């Protein structure tokens, strides 16, 4: 009994000391951290301004292995929003972009759990030749009296997170630069022969009117639909899937109504609850390939070149594969890899 009383007295004494010490800890804390990355600001800023990009390299989200994400329109810039949830660790929250000045500054609000008090994170971008300097201003939320001890470690936590995140972003941008250099060396409008590996695609079957005004808009809509599903619902990162592809029967390109499959390559099958999405296998094959750049509607001429070559070589062909080499946005400027599987 005496031992129990002694333990209770010790606990009360420690609680008293802790409570007293909290009088000397601010209810919120502000601090500044400087960082630098060896890429120009026009490459760096889009990684901050798009929350899907942001979560792919920011260490705060990378360490949440079982987290799921929901992104809301607009997907980039002022008004962008996302929710994250990690049931395994009882962790959830919301992230918002409250201000965005292209290549200059951005402000986030981060809510953790059910708290109504957010973290305010302001990032200033300073161009420095081929490098970008970043100034992070962090303001922690107001905390209850007994939670103020978290402010004692908040700065160390954010500094470590930012430094790790910058390393992740440097690696990500390095991969993008390699891809840009590869695209710069592509020879357009020349037919080549390649052996294409097989793969597994997750996507949607689509039917739409085949007019110059409607088709590209329909492709863009399904591109966003499939990409958002893979990134948000399946929580896949950029290095976990390949370039989106469109499969279509080239014999139907002149029909008034056209059907196609739009999908994203995945390494393996996953559980999918949305019946709008399904898997399709892409078999390994010999392919005739031509790279195209320009107005999306003008690609038909290049496709005809592939079909003529197959006919000349007395080969049958499979479904045409259209692969976007860059994120499609403007019908006037797309970069495609057109592949036509051929066989005897």
TrEMBL record:
InterPro entries: Reg_factor_effector_dom_sf. This is Polyketide cyclase. The lineage of its organism: Bacteria, Pseudomonadati, Bacteroidota, Flavobacteriia, Flavobacteriales.
